[in-house]
Design goal:
304 residues; mainly alpha; globular; disordered N terminus; disordered C terminus
Length: 304
């Protein structure tokens, strides 16, 4: 009986982690899913970051065009976040770290050995398609109407011709409807609301008061939240987590090997990544584009 209770409790923890599945850096046990490129560049390890940049340039041959991580740009965008509860955050970080290596990774490795990659990618596409309401509403709130139209078109096409979202025909060259990877936290950032302070949630990983809005927002807007009974919904969310993790095994390990202090590396990478996302969304927002074009005209008129 105790063993069944332990398994159920683990599934519950993992299921909660999926409530914020649209946030690239805080899905699942967030640290394992961090993209190692921005992490290495965000870490305060001078020579280490320089070596990582050089290696990336050597592999891509066009670093500035693809990633825009040149030194000048990076220094311009670099900001920090307050971390007043660092001891508690570090404890939560280590909890998530152990949860990944002791539970999530072994299950994901076993799943990966059994299920071929094309099938796992199709499952990922299916769950991404289910996250349409959050992205669509976020685009509307950001006044990014072209993004909302693109997201609406993607959902319709992928649901009907993509067999419920398992396939992604809307990304084909003929249609080329771009994914809108946005969320409610970015929406608040677009309107000038700052992060606040750094938080590491158990299972959910790096966050802030602003981005924690996603936890509630994604729950109510994510269709899986309404699967009945409750344990069936937890099972679906746990499966999504395991499937997504199976496609990214090794990212977190690379981060830990490269960083002097993985906790600081994840924190810095998180804040820099979210900053770039908010800036990208601002550039798409009709509100901010209108301000940028009309304010200079008003200034010139006043001057004259």
């Amino acid at each position: 009986m105790k063993s069944y209770f332990s398994i159920a409790l683990l599934c519950a923890f993992l299921a909660v982690g999926c409530a914020s599945s649209q946030r690239s850096l805080s899905a699942v046990v967030t640290q394992p899913l961090v993209d190692p490129k921005p992490v290495l560049l965000a870490a305060d390890s001078g020579q280490q970051a320089t070596d990582a940049q050089a290696q990336t340039k050597a592999q891509s041959g066009n670093d500035n065009e693809n990633f825009d991580y040149d030194d000048d740009t990076f220094k311009e965008e670099r900001i920090e976040i307050a971390d007043p509860i660092e001891p508690l955050n570090r404890a939560m970080y280590h909890f998530n770290d152990k949860l990944y290596f002791w539970a999530l990774k072994p299950v994901a490795q076993g799943y990966k050995a059994v299920v071929p990659e094309p099938a796992r990618i199709s499952v990922k596409n299916f769950f991404f398609n289910l996250g349409f309401p959050v992205r669509f509403l976020s685009c509307l709130l950001q006044a990014d109407f072209s993004g909302a139209a693109s997201e609406f078109g993607r959902f319709g096409i992928n649901t009907i011709w993509g067999i419920g979202g398992l396939l992604d025909p809307s990304s084909s060259k003929e249609l080329d409807l771009q994914k809108q990877e946005t969320d409610l936290g970015q929406t608040l950032g677009v309107y000038g609301i700052g992060h606040g302070f750094y938080i590491v949630w158990p299972v959910l990983g790096p966050s802030s008061p602003r981005d924690s809005v996603d936890i509630a927002g994604d729950y109510f807007l994510y269709p899986v939240s309404y699967v009945y009974p409750w344990y069936a919904g937890m099972g679906v969310r746990s499966y999504e987590i395991v499937n997504n993790t199976s496609l990214r095994i090794g990212d977190y390990e690379s981060l830990k090997e490269a960083a002097i202090d993985p906790y600081v590396a994840v924190r810095d990478a998180y804040i820099q990544y979210r900053l770039k996302k908010v800036k990208a969304r601002k550039s798409r927002s009709l509100i901010f584009r209108t301000e940028e074009t009309t304010l200079p005209v008003i200034d010139r008129a006043i001057t004259k």
